[in-house]
Amino acid sequence: MKKAILGILVLVIVAVLYFTYTDTDQTTDVTPPTTEQPEVTETEETTQADPGSTQQESADADDAEVKEFTLDAFSFGYSQEELVVNEGDTVTINLTNSDGFHDWVLDEFDAETEQISEGETTSVTFVAGEAGTYEYYCSVGQHRANGMVGTLVVE
Predict the structure, then answer these.
(1) DSSP SS3 for 4
(2) Which residue range forms the structural domain that includes residue 109?
(3) Domain with 134 in it: what CATH number?
(4) Per-residue pLDDT tens digits for 95-149
(5) What distance in Å separates the CA atoms of residue 98 and residue 60, rounded to the nearest whole number?
(6) At what angle do helices 55-63 and 42-49 cross, to 10 degrees?
(7) How many CA within 13 A on the CB side of residue 80?
(8) How many angstroms separate the CA atoms of 36 and 114, rounded?
(9) 117 located within any domain
(10) Is pLDDT of 37 > 60?
(11) How many domains does the chain have?
C-alpha cells in the first residue's frame, strides 16, 4: 500500500514539473515589445477611422466644428429647449443643476451625463453623426413625462 501511494506521488510530482517546464518554455518571449507608432497622415487617419469613407466625407469632417452648450437643469426643465448643430460636429453638453436631481440623455447618439444633485456640474461629449431632430431628456423618475425634454437639431 505504501509503495502504491509513493508511486502515485512520484507521478504527480513528475507531471507537475513537466507541465511547469513546458508552459514556461512556451510563454517565454525574447523579442522586446516595440513602442514606436508608425507615422499616420491625415488621409490615413480618415481611412482608418472609417474604411468606407469617401473624399467628400473627409471634406465634410474638415468642416465639422466643436459646439459647446451650458445647460441649467431645474425642476422639470432645461435652460435651453433647443440646440442647433451641424452634422459631424463634436458636441459638448455642460450640465449644471440649480434644483433637484437630474441628468441629460440623448439616446440616438448614445450620450448621457451622470445624474447630479443641486449645485453640481457634469458634462458629456459626442459627435452629431446624422442630420435630424432628436429629443433629449432627463431620465430621473418621471421627469421626462413631466416635460423635462428639449430638442437637438442636427442640420
Answers:
(1) helix
(2) 65-154
(3) 2.60.40.420
(4) 999 999 999 999 999 999 999 999 999 999 999 999 999 999 999 999 999 999 9
(5) 38
(6) 100
(7) 15
(8) 36
(9) yes
(10) no
(11) 1
Cell 430638442, residue?
151
Whole-model pTM? 0.60
Answer yes or no: are the C-beta atoms of 85 and 153 closer than 8 Å: yes
For the chain, percent of residues with pLDDT exceeding 90: 58
Instruction: Kindly give the pairing relationship between strand 149-154 and strand 132-137.
Output: antiparallel
Q: What is the mean pLDDT of residues 64-84?
A: 95
Domain assignment present for 45: no
Structural domain includes residue 97: yes
> Which cell numbers hold the place of 150?
428639449
Task: Measure the CA–CA gap between 152 and 129, rounded to whole angstroms.
Answer: 12
Question: Is residue 5 situated within a structural domain?
Answer: no
- Collect all residues with Cβ–Cβ distance below 8 Å to 39 and sequence separation of at least 6: none
**Other residues' Cβ atoms within 10 Å of the Cβ of residue 143:** 20
